[in-house]
């Protein structure tokens, strides 16, 4: 079992692709066949396994999410850290904190157009940790 | 590999925190480094890895979900068990049946404000099983 | 560790139950106790662990999702492959690319009414891969 922690700096709300970083950890580990768990220990950032060819897809995903979960909705009771505080928790709930990806012949078995993204849901930059475990 | 089944009694729709129970199973197992899979074998209850400091967050998550997935919507074909029957299946679909959490030095690697919750989606109390597997 | 790849042909948007196929792979593997990761390497098809008794549940899940994520919404920037292109990516984001299911005594520990489904989000038939890993 190999473990590795990535620390990334987000530039506010949006996607940060991690596919190369995760693949690099897989290569460094020497793992031939197995699995890789990607885990985000945050409640206002999450994971997406999504289309990584056309950036318009991510813009549309973000726009859809912004319409579904409105910032500053007066019905939110929790707004300690601002109008994007509660929406960030809801967006995390609707997406993923862990994804388990197969590894074969030393390569992540993602689809041809599938990438792994950290999704920052807060509007301001944050430092985020991503915990990778391979076995 | 260690397995353990928790059985909990919910008091109707809402969140039941399992963080301490899961941590306790990890401690009892003697596992130092590895992973813990949390699995809910139900289709009207699910898992959340969410903010566990301020209870207003859970009230807002529940309120958001209630607005998104309306009870008793006449467009539902399936209502055998009442107005909350189909919404419970939709809520489960939108959240999680399994979450895989890293364990290091005998501790679940959850974030500082991150807890594990069972989310009961039915309005009446139910007995729910939670399957933990550590390796 | 056992790995197996299923290739299925969908008939357009909707659910394809995989419970028997996955159980069959578990049986063939000889695994008594462990876990099974189900992974979909696509960005417009995903997984559901949902009610498998009454087919009206799946019709309602599909109808809910169609109302939530509208085909042909003019606000989508990405529509290269048609009005169901971007909705398929959003639906995948809101559901699951990986699910980890416990195995005990050679049987998947799904709930009594819980089945594993591939959810095709495109309106036209597609060939889809499902990667199973048991350990």
Helical/strand content category of chain A = alpha+beta
CATH architecture group name of chain A: Sandwich
Mean pLDDT of chain A: 97
Largest sheet of chain A: 5 strands, antiparallel
> How would the global form of chain A be characterised?
elongated
Give the oligomeric state. homotrimer
What does this structure look like?
- The structure is a homotrimer of 135-residue chains.
- By secondary structure, the first copy, chain A, is α+β, with helices and mostly antiparallel strands.
- Chain A has a 5-stranded antiparallel sheet, covered by helices on one side. A 3-stranded antiparallel sheet of chain A has the order 2-7-4, with helices on both faces.
- The longest helix of chain A is centred in the middle third of the chain and has 14 residues.
- Chain A is elongated.
- At the A-B interface, helix 3 and strand 8 of A face strand 4, helix 2 and strand 5 of B.
SSE blueprint and pairings:
3 copies of one chain form a homotrimer.
Chain A: E1 2-9, E2 14-17, H1 19-29, E3 34-39, E4 45-51, H2 55-68, H3 85-94, E5 98-104, E6 107-108, E7 114-120, E8 127-134
Antiparallel strand pairs in A: 1-8, 2-7, 3-5, 3-8, 4-7, 5-6
In brief:
With 135 residues, chain A is an alpha+beta fold. The first copy, chain A, has 3 helices and 8 strands.
What keywords describe this structure?
135 residues; 8 strands; homotrimer; 36% strand; 3-stranded antiparallel sheet; Jelly Rolls; 5-stranded antiparallel sheet; elongated; 3 helices; alpha+beta
């Amino acid at each position: 079992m190999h473990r590795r922690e990535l620390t990334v700096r987000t530039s506010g709300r949006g996607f940060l692709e991690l596919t190369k970083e995760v693949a690099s950890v897989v290569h460094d580990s020497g793992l031939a066949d197995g699995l890789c768990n990607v885990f985000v220990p945050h409640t206002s950032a999450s994971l997406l396994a999504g289309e990584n060819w056309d950036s318009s897809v991510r813009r549309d995903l973000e726009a859809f999410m912004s319409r579904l979960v409105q910032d500053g909705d007066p019905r939110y009771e929790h707004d300690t850290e601002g109008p994007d505080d509660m929406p960030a928790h809801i967006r995390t709930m609707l997406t993923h904190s862990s994804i388990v990806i197969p590894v074969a012949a030393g390569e992540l078995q993602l689809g041809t157009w599938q990438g792994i993204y950290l999704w920052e849901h807060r509007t301001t930059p944050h430092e985020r940790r991503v915990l990778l475990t391979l076995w």
